[in-house]
Amino acid sequence: MGWVRRVVERAREDVDGALARDPAASTRLEVVLTSPGLHAIWAHRGLHELWKHPAGRLPARVLATVTRSVTGVEIHPAARIGRRFFIDHGMGVVIGETAEVGDDVMLYHGVTLGGRSLEHVKRHPTVGNRVTIGAGARVLGPVLVGDDVQVGANSVVVKDVPAGAVATGIPAVLRFPKRDATNQWVDPAIYI
Q1: What is the edge-to-edge ordering of all strands in the sheet holding 86-87?
Q2: Would you state the pLDDT for residue 186?
Q3: Distances (CA, A) of 68 to 30, 40, 140
Q4: Are strands 166-168 and 156-157 parallel, antiparallel or unpaired?
Q5: What's the pLDDT at 192?
Q6: CA gap 13, 11 in Å, rounded
Q7: Which of the listed residues 59, 106, 120, 147 has the most CB atoms within 10 Å of its CB?
Q8: Could you give the C-alpha distances from 150 to 27, 41, 123, 155, 163, in angstroms and in order?
């Protein structure tokens, strides 16, 4: 029964995270019933556990394809994703096999955490904690995106991004906005 309690607690965290980050969501029930990003991450968590067993890999891939068809979000079952992860709108998000995503991360629609190599190595990004990645952004290759980073919409990140930076443009240019108690999160749109 301990694992059931953990699953319920994790699902509750996810719903709370979605409510905190989505101004259009008004109730828990609405989020649970209508958030494709939430449905995709819940499916992924189960499929990731299935993926850990050699006999479960093919079923995990097949069910991930079904999940993609239903939600518009493609997450490889091997990807490692942290707590309170939220995908706003969801459609077109792709998260590759060797991607690692930290806690309290938010992705907008059309984000790709993709690879640039066909070799069987770590070829997808590692994303830190409290990261926001804007709509249509591409983070490609085995790059490290540090904690508290913001990636602007439609940016292309192909190099490491240090903690606290704002990355915008093609290829992404790094900026380090001054943050204080009154201006903790700077909207990356001001740099576009």
Answers
A1: 86-87, 106-107, 132-133, 150-151, 166-168, 173-175
A2: 55
A3: 21, 8, 20
A4: unpaired
A5: 46
A6: 5
A7: 106
A8: 27, 21, 21, 11, 9
